[in-house]
Design goal:
Keywords: Membrane, Transmembrane, Transmembrane helix. The chain crosses the membrane at residues 16-38, 50-70, 82-102, 114-133, 139-156. It contains 7 helices and no strands. The chain has 200 residues and is an all-alpha fold. α3 runs antiparallel to α5 (108-128). The longest helix has 35 residues, at 4-38.
Length: 200
């Protein structure tokens, strides 16, 4: 009886983790469908590449789980918490557009880049620390480095999706630099949190 209890608890946590990831995906895709096909005329959705997001966001949300599933040998203990942290920023971003927070709240975009990259970094940190123990400084640098790379590629994607030739082109350079710095700082914060958590 006692031997079966830890396995039951693991199965329960795994089921709950899978459900959280499914909810994050459904809420994100649902809002993208509304923005693309039913409310595309609203100001918060205009010229923001929601057609491309409808394709790319689900793909990016599922990329890490797919890589894990294809490369791992032990599939009975998926890192659902890591997957959820990585998927969460996409929901936050889409919800911010749905609620028109990017245009209505001046600091939302900056906060979004910092906090969302902290979420991404927490997910990356959970994946990084699943392997052999690493020095704290190495964890911090790995998580911050992954976050910085993601911030660069994100800004490249934004440029090609809706900035080039758009109304935001004049301020794009300053905004891009600021977003990359905030994203890297968010990931660095996640790296510190991950390192302290592993230490404890």
């Amino acid at each position: 009886m006692t031997d079966e209890q830890p396995e039951d608890e693991t199965v329960g946590r795994s089921g709950a983790g899978a459900l959280v990831c499914v909810v994050l995906l459904v809420l994100t895709v649902g809002q993208l469908l509304v923005a693309t096909f039913f409310a595309s005329g609203l100001e918060q959705f205009e010229d923001k590449g929601f057609g491309a997001r409808l394709v790319l966001y689900p793909v990016m949300m599922l990329t890490v789980p797919a890589i894990w599933w294809l490369t791992t040998k032990r599939r009975d203990d998926p890192p659902w918490a890591a997957f959820a942290w990585i998927m969460l920023p996409f929901l936050v971003d889409v919800t911010g557009n749905t609620l028109n927070l990017y245009d209505a709240v001046g600091w939302w975009d900056d906060a979004n880049h910092f906090v969302n990259w902290m979420f991404l970094g927490l997910g990356a940190g959970l994946l990084i620390t699943r392997g052999p123990a690493r020095p704290r400084w190495e964890i911090v640098l790995l998580v911050a480095g992954v976050g910085a790379i993601m911030a660069i590629f994100w800004e490249i994607g934004e440029y090609y999706a809706f900035i080039r030739g758009g109304t935001e082109l004049d301020t794009a350079y300053t905004d891009t630099l600021g977003d990359e710095v905030l994203g890297t700082l968010g990931a660095l914060t996640a790296g510190v949190i991950t390192a302290v958590r592993q230490r404890r």
